Amino acid sequence: MVRSIGMLRKKRGFTLIELIVVLAVLAIIMAIAIPQYAGVREDARVDADMATLASIAKLAEFEYVRQDLENSGSTELEDPSLSVLISENFSEDELFQSEGLKGVDVDSIVVSFDRGKVISFTIDEATYSYSDGKFALD
Fold it and tell me: How many domains does the chain contain in total?
């Protein structure tokens, strides 16, 4: 009997209280982390959309040069228009990811040039200007 009590004392493990405390700490950490994660995801989607706008800007600048709009005095792309170029080079259903731009019709994208460089996009009354090497909502 004395020998079996001594063996029980030598067994090591976690008590129920210790396990409950660990689970409570993990629950608190998760309660803080999950809302932060959602915000980080949306920020990443917005950054991806701004990178897509930069790609569209490069495409528009290339077409601007190809059509020689600088010498013709025009500021609008002729055929193919910007919406045709976007449709040919991007998948429309995956063009934008963030909540603010998701589902935007490519025909509503208007580009503004200054001496062959894209300076801004107007999309459904929102203007995205080029500054500090990237596009941002005004």
Answer: 1
Quick: pLDDT tens for 22-63: 999 999 999 999 888 888 998 999 999 999 999 999 998 888
The torsion angles phi and psi of 78, rounded to 5 degrees, stand at -90, -165
One-letter identity of residue 43 = D
Please return the burial class of 83, using the count of CB atoms within 10 Å of its CB with bins 0-12, 13-18 and 19+: middle
Query: In sequence order, what are the residues at sequence separation of 6 or more whose Cβ sits closer than 8 angstroms to the Cβ of residue 33?
Result: none
> Of 110, 118, 126, 111, which is closest to residue 46 (Cα–Cα)?
126
Cα–Cα distance measured from residue 1 to residue 16, given in angstroms and rounded to the nearest whole number? 26
Is-contact 83 123, C-beta < 8 A?
Answer: no
Which residues pair with residue 110 across a beta bridge?
122
Task: Tell me, yes or no, whether 108 lies in a domain.
Answer: yes
